[in-house]
Each structure stands twice: as C-alpha cells, then as structure tokens.
Design goal:
Elements (H helix, E strand, L loop, with lengths): L4 E7 L9 E6 L7 E11 L1 H8 L11 E2 L3 E9 L11 E4 L13 E5 L3 E3 L6 H5 L2 H14 L7 E4 L5 H12 L3 E5 L5 H7 L3 E3 L6 H4 L3 E6 L4 H6 L3 E9 L8 H8 L2 E4 L6 H12 L7 E6 L3 H9 L6 E5 L3
Parallel strand pairs: 9-10, 9-12, 10-11, 12-13, 13-14, 15-16
Antiparallel strand pairs: 1-2, 1-4, 3-5, 3-7, 3-16, 5-6, 6-8
Helix pairs in contact: 3-4
Length: 318
C-alpha cells in the first residue's frame, strides 16, 4: 500500500555517487518517545560523502542504508510518551548521528529530544542547512573552546558549511574573527562579520597569524599541526579532523598550547540556542544550491569538488 512506503536514496554497497539509488522502502513508525517527521528538506554535508564511501562511521551502520542527517520537516505522528511536539509542528534536527538517520527520505523517526522547533521565519530549506554544520560550529566554539568577548578566533575554511556559520556564531559572542578562504569569498565573509580574511592559497597562515585564542580546524594532517603555531600560549585548537592529524597533542604540548578532538552530537538545547540566534538575526545559513531528492548524487559530486560556499540542500517534499 502506497501509504506504508516512501521514496528514499539508498545504498547497497560503499562507493561513489553512482552507488546512490532512488527506491521505495518501508516507511518507519515511531517507537516510544519518538516522532515521525515528514521530511521537507534535507541538508547535504561532506560527512555524507565519506559515509557513502564507507570511510566514516561504517562500524555503526549496516548496508543497505539511507544517507544524510540534516532534517527539516513536519511532525506526522508522535510515539507514546512524547510531550514536546504534536502532529503539524515544524521541526529540525540532526538525529542519531553518527548512526544512520536516513535523512534522504520522505520520513524519518528519532527521539523527540533530538529535534527542536524550527526558527520563526525560516524556510524548510534554510532550516535543513543548519543542524549538523551549526551544531558543529556551536559545540566547537561554545562547549569546548568557551569563546568569550574580545578573543581572537581563527576559522579555517570559513566560507564552507561549518565555517560560515562559525564566523557568525563567534561574532555573536563578541569575538574578533579571522577567516581563511579563497580571495573570491572574502566579500562574502566580510558580509557575515569577519574582521580579517586571509587567502590560504597565497598566504602561509601559520607564518603570518599570531596570538590567536581559538582555532577551529576543518581539515587534518600537517596543515592542522601548523595551525597550532598561530595560537597564543594556552590557546586552543579544536580539530574536526583530529583522527587524521597524528602527533597533534605532542606538538601542542611542545608549543604550550592546547588541542582537542571533536565529533558533533545531537543536542536539543544547542539547537534551541541556535534557533535563538537565527530569530535574533545573528545567524543565517547561506544555501548555495537546492536540488530535488532524486539528484542526491549530483549534490555529492558538487560537495566533493570542494568549492561550495555555504550549504547544499535537497528538497524532498513540497
């Protein structure tokens, strides 16, 4: 019966974008404390590509699986015990990460506390662009680095999905923000509030920038190790790619600075803090490309080019 199945982008084996298939699968049902959400839009993130290839968190998923975590939609049904939402509520979130959430589908289920009400005035497309990237930026800056007014914050890949939101969040806390990006993106970063911009393709950042309090590092390896050199004594580098940065802690100790690993987590309270920033017009996602669900493979190809400014979002339903 059509009412019990849904469209989804499914993978039966790891590989490139061509492994993604539009299929009909059984629609999930909410268990106790869970909500069933009709997905209107789903955000696309680099981790989705790594997951498709089996390079990220494959040990907590089984094939076949439905990719994606960023969800914005409408509560369709609530399980027993749910008091926070009712059918018809507009919600957004990043459920289950890093386990499979199945966002590239018409419906998802997850515990109600992994969602928050969408910001007033936001479209579904805008809301779907926020959860994973904005939670990453918030948790790096606020939960780990404890950003404070007047601090100097260096954001790598500042025009990307996480970076462009991190710039705005840091500014909302009164920080002085330095963003790295190609020169063509400097005007964009200035509009977001960046105080300084540096072209990483022409400038040796580690040899140029000094006395930074916080570095948000979006890529690993030797470049991440060198970014430790920009910190003041006692400053902190929060590295989203620490697993690919061997020797990070040892080098930090040599320089008398701190370093931290990081992995984003679903968190209702953090989502609600982000909602507050959006409603105060201190945070807005930039959505560069919107594609229909059936073009999820094309969205991945665009992500893998590494030239996306802001976010890419899939539309799932009207």
């Amino acid at each position: 019966m059509r009412g019990q199945i849904m469209r989804a982008i499914q993978q039966e084996h790891w590989g490139g974008p061509e492994t993604m298939r539009l299929v009909d699968i059984e629609r999930p049902r909410p268990l106790y404390t869970e909500v069933l959400v009709k997905v209107i839009a789903a955000g696309v993130n680099p981790v989705d590509c790594f997951s498709r290839e089996g390079r990220a968190y494959a040990d907590v998923r089984t094939l076949p699986f439905v990719n994606g975590w960023d969800v914005a939609g409408i509560v369709e049904e609530v399980g027993y015990g749910v008091t926070r939402f009712r059918p018809g509520d507009r919600v957004y979130g990043m459920p289950w990460f890093p386990r499979a959430a199945g966002a590239y589908a018409e419906y998802v289920t997850a515990p109600s506390h992994q969602f928050a009400r969408m910001p007033t005035g936001s479209s579904f497309t805008e809301a779907a662009a926020l959860p994973l990237a904005a939670l990453t930026a918030w948790q790096m800056l606020v939960d780990i680095a404890k950003v404070a007014p007047g601090q100097r914050v260096l954001v790598s890949a500042a025009a990307g999905g996480v970076g462009h939101l991190a710039v705005q969040i840091a500014k909302s806390f009164g920080a002085h923000v330095i963003g790295t990006a190609r020169s063509a993106e400097h005007d964009f970063l200035a509009e977001l509030g960046a105080d300084e911009t540096i072209d990483y393709t022409t400038t040796d950042i580690a040899a140029t920038v000094r006395d930074v309090d916080i570095v948000l590092q979006m890529y690993g390896g030797d470049p991440a190790l060198r970014m430790l050199e920009t910190l003041r004594p006692g400053g902190i580098l929060v590295n989203g790619q620490a697993a690919w940065t061997p020797g990070m802690y040892e080098r930090a100790a040599e320089l008398d600075v701190r370093a931290s690993t990081f992995l984003v987590e679903p968190d209702r309270a953090d989502l609600e803090s982000l909602t507050d920033l959006v409603e105060k017009k201190q945070l807005r996602p930039h959505v560069e490309t919107v594609l229909p669900l059936e073009q999820a493979a094309e969205a991945h190809r665009l992500i893998e080019q590494g030239r996306t400014t802001g976010k890419i979002v899939l539309t799932v339903a009207e």
